[in-house]
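EI: anyone free to look at a 97-residue chain?
SC: sure, send it
EI:
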Amino acid sequence: MLSFALLPMLALELLQGPGELSYDPIVVGDLGGYSARAEDVIGMLGGASWVVVGGSENVNGDFHAFLENEVGLIDLGTFGGPLSEAVAVNVFEEVVG
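SC: here you go
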């Protein structure tokens, strides 16, 4: 079952004009399981580049950290156990979790 997390509140902020901000939702993929959640999102001005990090259940039922950008979704794996989650990311795409 494919699931997606829609992020209307953690959306990219795009500068439209003087003092005007608009928000574009990002549809986040998953690792093949039944649930996924985003923990942090950053977007560059103009929406050309964005990064979302969080956690997703995979097909084996394990919960793995992920990073998704405009190129695709990356399973960040774990340090040997069944569980990991990314909670923050910076502009260099360095992840903390």
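EI: The chain has no helices and ten strands.
SC: 👍
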